[in-house]
Amino acid sequence: LYLMVASLKTLRHLFIALAIACALPWIAVVIVPAFAGDLRWYDRHTFGHTESLDLAVVFLKFNPLCYIHIFFVGMALARLRDLLEPHSKKATLVKVMHGLAPAGYLGLLLLFSVPALHPPAAKLSARLSILLPLQAAVLLGLAGLPGAEPTAMASKVARLNFLEGYSYAVYVMQF
Questions:
Q1: CA gap 102, 106 in Å, rounded
Q2: Stated pTM of the model
Q3: Range list of β-strands (E), 4-148
């Protein structure tokens, strides 16, 4: 994956690759079921059964191949920051970067708090990262541009760094 991301030399190619990576979860959770005529397919899933539907859900939830796009997007965001560095003094780009994190957080808040906006198969789609564009906006907005002043939100969030020591412990305790 690293070589693939490193080979992306232009912003255009990088944005195309990011769009493809962000579209992959939609194929599994929305597009295929739409063609099959059943967007509510996940509602029939029952934990512990060995029917084909349940095996498909287990595969989508736990197979590492179903998450490779997430690793790709993380590396592509780092590459994006590298490609944006020469443009880091442009006022329009700085404004866009300052708005990314709040826009991403607002989108996530709306998706989680407004039932009509919940994606189909919400538990599975969140796990497969249908929300990846919004999560990427938050990450990129908080990271900011190389060589530019940090955004106001990034400065405020940095005060929470003392929590990072607890983060991994909480993660491990979930399993």
A1: 6
A2: 0.75
A3: none
